[in-house]
Amino acid sequence: MTSSTIQRASSSTCIRNSYHVFLSFRGEDTRKNFTDHLYTTLVAYGLQVFRDDEELEKGGDIASDLSRAIEESKIFIIIFSKNYANSRWCLNELVKIIEQMEEKKSMVLPVFCHVNPSDVRKQSGGYEEAFSNHEADANQEKERIQNWRSALTKAAELSGCHVDDQ
After folding, report:
1. Would you list the DSSP string of 106-166?
2. Distance of alpha carbon 53 from alpha carbon 36, whole angstroms
3. Distance (Å, whole) CA 142 – CA 131
4. Nearest-angstrom CA–CA distance, 162 and 17
5. CB neighbours (10 Å) of residue 106?
6. pLDDT (tens digit per residue) in 16-54
7. Helix, strand or coil, per DSSP, at residue 2
8. Is 30 left (phi over 0), alpha (psi -120 to 50) or beta?
9. What's the CA dihedral at 109, 113, 119, 120 to 10 degrees?
């Protein structure tokens, strides 16, 4: 996301209870490092940013609050990390984000944080292991798993950023 994109988003009027940016991330992987820095920077530019630990109402219905926040967001930054695909919450969130992208032409920026974009796109490497675990869970519907796979593939095919230590 360029600074001109940030400036355009921050200068646009944000309707009540809506967000310029929605951050989708696996908390245990990136909350206290990459996501924290990104959130702080975006807020410093004057953007309304949804991050689950800051914006979810205590005692509220998490699933409906997340769904509403996604519907009310303009830009989505998906931070793919090592354990992103292990989280059913992250994967359900991703499906909703991709629906918003296709229906409302919302901007989606994938960030591959210490993961290979190809592993996300093809569900290989650690992502393959995560899906093996989901498929072994008898409670998971095959259609839901296929929706997760499709959303991962679509998101990973978008132009994004690759963050790595090397």
Report:
1. -EEEEEEESS-HHHHHHT-THHHHHHHHHHH-TTS-HHHHHHHHHHHHHHHTS--EEE---
2. 11
3. 11
4. 31
5. 18
6. 458 999 999 998 898 889 999 999 999 999 999 999 765
7. coil
8. alpha
9. -30
CA distances to 11, 123, 151 from 111, rounded to whole Å, are: 24, 16, 15
Q: Is 93 a catalytic residue?
A: yes
**Integer Cα distance of 74 and 109 in angstroms:** 11
Identified catalytic residue from 93, 103, 129, 135: 93
Q: Tokens at residue 154, please? A: 């679509």
pLDDT tens by residue, 60-76: 667 888 899 999 999 99
Which two tokens mark 76? 């989505």
143 residue type, one letter: E
Q: Tell me whether strands 49-50 and 19-25 are parallel, antiparallel or unpaired.
A: parallel
